[in-house]
Amino acid sequence: MLRGIDVVLYEKHQTGEDAFHAPVYEVTPVTVHNVLVGAPDTAAIVNELTLTGRRLAYTLALPKGDSYDWHNVTVEFFGQKFRTYGDVVQGMESLVPLAWNKQVKVERYG
User: Fold this and answer.
1) Fold adopted by 5-108
2) What is the pLDDT of residues 17-32, one digit of tens each?
3) pTM of the prediction?
4) Could you write out the DSSP letters of every residue in the chain?
């Protein structure tokens, strides 16, 4: 049986504005269970770098029923921090036979 790992997602919630009217965020770590981490092939890395200028590190498969916002957030797994980019690609939940129906790309982040 396939089983994913725990990934720490750093959720951002806007708490106000600073003196220049830029948003101020509070970051809260949330553990998301059963996330699959896939390594991209060389062609995918080269294509992403050519098309977007970002170096694709991994692709995350998110479990069905996940309701978190994965757009441009920091995630942590394997003892390293990564940043999601691009849109979440979602399949029809009832037509996907396994426990995961969404994918998001991540790049290495400081």
Assistant:
1) Thrombin, subunit H (2.40.10)
2) 999 999 999 999 999 9
3) 0.86
4) ----EEEEEEEEEEEEE-TTS-EEEEEEEEEEEEEEEEPPPHHHHHHHHHHHS--EEEEEEEETT-----TT-EEEETTEEEEEEEEEEE--TTT--SSEEEEEEEEE--
